[in-house]
Amino acid sequence: MTGRSAEQRWQAWQTVDTGRLVLLSAASLLIVVALTRVGVDHHVAIIRLPIAFGLYIAFGELLRLALPGGREAAPIAMSAALSYAMVLQVPVTSRQSGLTALVNPETPPLQIVLVAAIGMTLGSLPHIAAGRRAGATGMAARLVAVAIVAFAFRPLAGHLTTSPWLAFAVMFVLAMTGWLIETIISAIIRADDLRAKYSVTLTDELGVQWRLGLAVAVSAIIAVFGVEVMGVAVLAVFAGPLLVIQLAFRRYAGIRATYLQTVRALAQVTEVGGYVETGHSRRVSRLALAIGRELGMPEPDLLDLEYAALMHDIGQLSLAEPVPGGATLLVAPDDARRIAEYGAEVIRQTGVLDTVAELVRCQWLPASGGPAAPPLGSRVIRAANAFDDLVSGSPDRDRTATAIERLRLAAGTEYDPVVVAALAAVTDRLPITRL
Amino acid sequence: MGRLSWATWLYIAAIAGAAAAIFARPPAHGFPLGYWVICGTLAVLFLICDSTPTLLGERQAAWSPSSAATLAAVVLLGRNGAIGAAMVGSVAVFSVRRFVPIAERLFNGAMYAVGGYAAGTTFTLLGGRPFLHLYPVSAVLTGQTPPHVLLGANASLKPFAAAAAVQVIVNHGLLWGMLRVDRHSRAAAKQATPGWSTPLLLASDLGLAALGLIIAAVWTVLGPLSTAVVLVPLFVARWAMGQFAEQQKAHAATLRALCQAVETKDFYTRGHSERVSRGSGMIARQIGMRADRAEAVRFAGMLHDVGKLGVPTRVLQKEGGLTEEEYAAIQLHPMRGLEIVREIGFLNEALTGIMHHHERMDGRGYPMGFAGHEIPEFARIIAVADAFDSMTSTRAYRKAKPFGDAIAELRRGAGTQFDPRIVDAFIAALRQDGWVLQEPAEPRGHEVLTWKDHDDPVAPLRVAESI
Using CB atoms and an 8 Å cut-off, which of residues 5-24 of chain B contact chain A? Predict the structure, then answer.
């Protein structure tokens, strides 16, 4: 994985990453303003409140959640910060009478920003100490979102104490807005990182995160009411359901990663068996992914494409003896068809990867258009496979150019011209060893 | 649950009797209409939660989030909490999950009723102040909280924690008793999807206890409809667990399919990986291996021969003796297998099983020549299942051996080739669970036949005498 992050760093320096720059500056500006204003204009009335929420946010930032697709979220931290921004009333016990009354804390929005920033920083320290990424981008996105919610909600808080359901509705809308802001920011950053289209990454991001966002928003509201009834001391209790959710998501992300590892590893059997060149499956899958992204394919399709590209040669196991050199480009159409169909058969055996099987089955079909045109994924694999057969992982620019030229000549009959153009764009931008 | 023994019925009847005794006594402090509303709403919540068993795996009902609903009743109903919680818990009898036999419904309902009653009693005894007493009942039902009232909910935290602990202990205890009494559910529990380690279970118990408190707290502000709010995070968690389970199944299926693809090259060894995987799992269960390790050993069994693909086909198809080089090529297959699967992160210990499954106890195996307990446990397990399946399968050069002969052969090899403890465990497991044989089939004309089986302890591979 280090190679990948190095590659991402490399990309980050190559392109002027305006999105991240703007985001980090906005967050820093917020913090600076908060630092200068808070403490001068206001005194902290109920000191337990910022301390408890600061710790809660730090705890949430400590327990970040890796989601499928290399994403990172901090649902507990986000939920904690949102509740802090939306606290309606807290019970305060009077020293003289011993009576407890509900009080609107009237927290200034900038204090919320400051507490969230401090909490997030505290929570990220262990990550930095352990040598993981600090996650400044994610924290900045959360901070900006929370700041907007805080500024929008605090003036309303006083009017909402008498009607719980109205309060619920307002908080729900604002919390979901906060989550949406965070998601849009991460989608923009992600599009920059992956060189994908904004609209595509936003759809992907919403698709992956909306359930988590819903849980974050509702949990934030639950914590607001919980604090009202039981006081700030029991804030930890309200992390309970989110912890369970986080455990579930972590396991889900874990098995997704394992699945990918397994397919990557077992796709190598064709290499060990001497059917194809070493590293062929891996290279074709990387190239296919890059092409697919260039073509704006959504994330679920990209995952299918990756699986199909990894296993596209699995059908060669049906051959008694390996094809010399393993170059499927040179195989007779009949054999190519048999390999594709046997491979699809193997994949269909899993009972769960039917789309992938279909991509593998159609990989040998010429992309000449018409109603019976193979699916886009198959056309991508066909081009990527042919390219790798011609270049076999060599970073030589001339060889790459020659291969592209050869594919271009057959574009429209053998290969999809759009796919070939995307392939040319991808290989032009980056040497293929960096894909 | 299948057919139940009389002991099991007696056990269920005893618990159901205890539950009935709870309900037989009229509630000492009256039970006004408002309480019925609370109990009814919580009972619905209980059933909804109960229908989402995927939240924490289907293993055991004690961990379903429905127990949070009984805990909420404890907090909301005060001195009537015990009976209220029992009422909420008893609706488990009407579980909407499909295929729940009547005995299990009865047991679950009685278990939750007894657990809820115990929790409620604990809460009251320790002086827990119910949330309802803080506000008039009417205020709670309409969701109207007077803006400035006396509050004391946080004083009830410790009694609540104790009540939750009691409920968890009672439920787990009753379930444990069930597993002791009933052989079927014991087997079911053993076979259930593993993967929830103790800290995770503890965390989820804590989370569910917290959920009970949350339901009660939000109720005091939003009224009965608060249950709908609380369900949102639960459904999200359920979705994620469902996705996890789905992906896990898909992963196992993919692994199996790819292993099958590898072995179709060789007619006689079809299904071998699958059977070795099952056999390894049987041994692991027999020697009481932890669930996650047992799962890993099954994966290792599945993948143990994946490196055989690196052995040239002509070597496997050769009749007669092998040259030194060909013999070396065969001996290399565990390493080739390791090479392929090394990057699969979750395998960890399973990798040692794949690499060393041809070591022998006397140190004459390959690739490292380890002896005795230098050989990793996984490898010793796979070796036994591997050899047994080889002997009981038909080969080009011989018919399948009968079970008795194969077992005798394992016994003969115990101590020299195999670990005697593992051999004993395997034989015991074999008696209990049986064995799925290779499908009897004659090769059709075009099949490529191999004349070697490197796994066969009766006909070990030999290097031809020097020519």
Answer: none
- pLDDT-derived band at B191 (thresholds 50, 70, 90) equals very low
CB A77, CB A60: distance < 8 Å: yes
Does residue B240 carry a pLDDT above 70? yes
Per the CB < 8 A criterion, the answer to whether A153 and A174 are in contact is yes
Q: What percent of chain B has pLDDT over 90?
A: 14
Of B329, B325, B322, B379, nearest to B350 (Cα)? B379
Tell me how close the Cα of B29 comes to any Cα of chain A, in angstroms: 25
Closest residue on chain A to B199 (Cα): A247
Top-confidence residue, B345 or B178: B178
- How is residue B192 written in tokens? 């259930």
CA B386 to chain centre: 24
Taking CB atoms and an 8 Å limit, are B229 and A222 in contact across chains?
A: yes
Give the 3-state secondary structure of residue B98: coil
- Percent pLDDT > 70 in chain B is 80
Of A52, A42, A37, A126, the residue nearest A91 (C-alpha) = A52
Contact call for residues B314 and B322 (beta carbons, < 8 A)? no
Q: Which whole number is the average pLDDT over B104-120?
A: 88
Q: Looking at this predicted complex, what is its ipTM?
A: 0.84
Between CA A357 and CA B84 the distance in angstroms is 54
Q: Is residue B380 a contact partner of residue B287, using CB atoms and an 8 Å limit?
A: no
User: Residue A263 is nearest to which of B230, B234, B254, comparing CB atoms?
Assistant: B254
Contacts of B243 in chain A (CB under 8 A): 252
B260 in contact with A, Cβ within 8 Å: yes
CA distance A280 to chain B (A): 14
Closest Cα in chain B, distance from residue A67 (Å) = 11
CA distance B309 to chain A (A): 5
CA distance A184 to B436: 54
pLDDT along chain A (435 residues), means of 10: 48 60 88 77 68 94 89 93 92 70 83 94 93 88 95 91 87 96 92 85 90 94 87 80 86 90 86 82 92 92 94 82 60 81 89 90 78 85 91 83 90 88 87 63
**At A304, which amino acid appears?**
D
Which residues, other chains included, contact B381 with Cβ-Cβ below 8 Å and sequence gap of 6+?
Answer: B280, B283, B284, B297, B301, B353, B422
Nearest chain B residue to A210, by CA? B236
Looking at beta carbons, which residues of chain B come within 8 Å of A102?
147-149, 151
Contact A241 B214 (CB under 8 A): yes
For residue B452, give the DSSP letter: -
Q: Which residues from chain A sit within 8 angstroms of residue B248, using beta carbons? A: 255
Categorize the per-residue pLDDT at B223 as very low, low, confident or very high, splitting at 50, 70 and 90. Answer: confident
Q: Do A272 and B229 touch (CB under 8 A)?
A: no
Residue A153's pLDDT is: 95
- With CB atoms and an 8 Å threshold, state whether B152 touches A212: no
Three-state SS letters, B35-61: HHHHHHHHHHHHHHHHCCHHHHCCCCH
C-alpha B137/C-alpha B155 separation (Å) is 20
Rg of chain B (C-alpha set):
29
Q: Residue B139: name the closest of B259, B249, B34 by CA.
A: B34
Alpha-helix residue ranges (DSSP H) falling in B126-225: 137-142, 157-181, 183-191, 198-222
Q: Quick check: A101 and B148 CB within 8 A?
A: yes
